[in-house]
Amino acid sequence: MTELELLGPCAWGEALGSAVLKATAEDFQVDEVLDIPLSGDGEHLWLWVEKRGLNTEDAARRIAKAAGVALRTVSYAGLKDRQALTRQWFSIQLPGKADPDLSAAQSDTLRILKTTRHKRKLQRGAHAANGFTLRLTQLVADKEGLQARLEMIARQGIPNYFGAQRFGYQGGNLGEAREYAARQALPEQRAVRSRLLSTARSYLFNQVLAARVADGSWQRAQVGDLLAFTDSRSFFPAGEAECNDPRLAILDLHPTGPLWGSGPSPASGAAFALEQATGEREAALRDWLVRAGMEHERRILRLPIGGLTWHYPEPDILQLEFVLPAGCFATALVRELVDLVPVGQTDSPCVF
Prior knowledge:
The chain is α+β, with helices and mostly antiparallel strands. Helix content is 29%, strand content 27%. It has ten helices and 16 strands.
């Protein structure tokens, strides 16, 4: 499947050129933002880890082996890209034990930058946000157009699509999910089950968002919408008064879309009709998620880009720095700017 089929239309027009992303790990840097005061004592050892070309699960396995503990005692807040330079927290439960020698875990691909103790383990989703530094190299683009678009995005945000990487190479994860959904069966392996259920929910959400980008309603609240603040998982219905809430204009409050699960959508009006129609088109995936015991949740449709700055360290390199809430995709910003050319491909489809 194409990216357009998996995500949906861009909000701000056609790509303004082309570039390469992730020619090196340093071109895609992620720093986990954790808003938790660490006590300095307790049975959990927390590690601030820098990894390069290594996914989060592999890093956890390496840490567990070096510490001589079961993998289940190693926790992390979120998964980070393999093809990147990332810094994130891990924790190890060590009741009554001294800090282990973790030197065997370290290499050119993993460095432990800091350690401290805490009374609780690191929970999934505990991080507040992720800070990104992206370098778009081999850039061939309309720089005046990029300036105007970046200024627009800083003011008005972008559609909060789940990125193409959620769906696997050429949508392979979605294909697997459809196969299980057709049989109304679930994978036996917990990790595979979680990955495919997440893929299905993400795809249905993207379909709803794509329709609202197409009709221009992704940025504005409609009566019957369910609204949520940027950093909140709770939501509330929009009436006439809520649709005129000034916090919508400053990108603090947003309309939401469904993360499918059991029970009817709490939305009403046009939002409910769209969500129902999407569910009917993808009835097998919808019913599969319900039978798997997933609960109905919401995700904001509009993604504000925190602290967005940009400059050109070299004429053909655009560097972007920004912060996104946890669970949001930096590539959703990039696709609003340029087409990405595979690493090693020098011919550009766009010349300005």
